[in-house]
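Researcher: Re-running this chain for the archive, since the previous output was lost when a drive failed. Same request as before.
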Amino acid sequence: MKKAIILLSGGLDSAVTLYQAKKEGYKTFCLLFDYGQKHKKELKSAVKIAKLSKSPFKIIKMNLPWKGSALLDSAISIPHNALENIGKNALPSTYVPARNTIFISFALSYAETIKAQAIFIGANALDFSGYPDCRPDYFKSWNNLIKVLGIKNITVKTPLINKTKKEIIALGRKLNVPLKYTWSCYAGGLKPCGKCDSCKLRAKGFSETGLVDPAN
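Model: Regenerated structure tokens:
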């Protein structure tokens, strides 16, 4: 059976990506990261979703001591209006420098080791915060690099890259993804804050589908 490494954050997009990979016939192995983020809500969701999907999972614990992001540094507050600056050459403070590069590097090592054929990541370049490592050209470059390395049988796959949040939610429902257990909010708390970019994008998607978010 073909194998795939799934970069599972516990958020909406990564959970739908996991179930899409399973639909495509892959035996899924989830890779989770505890990288010093301010809260562990999303990580706990990832563990729950991996278990529900009956996917083996590994948690990689690391630390980025230089911080550089509102998701890591307690001195930087989570912004509530960063979406307004997309396309203005201004990265939101929630961007974690080189995060996807770090994560995919681990996934590639894991994939080579267990002879997996794919690495799935739930990146999206439509309803997103403008992060440079969530754009199609970035992932094309990864696949080119893999070829340069002489690795012939591993591909980085981004099944949600050109989908809106509305389309992602619709796909999640079709795939029976346990959406109520996903966590998208940048803030940790009993309930999503409803104010950060991620909450706003998620709310937009559910509003456009005419559905109530089961995680609220």
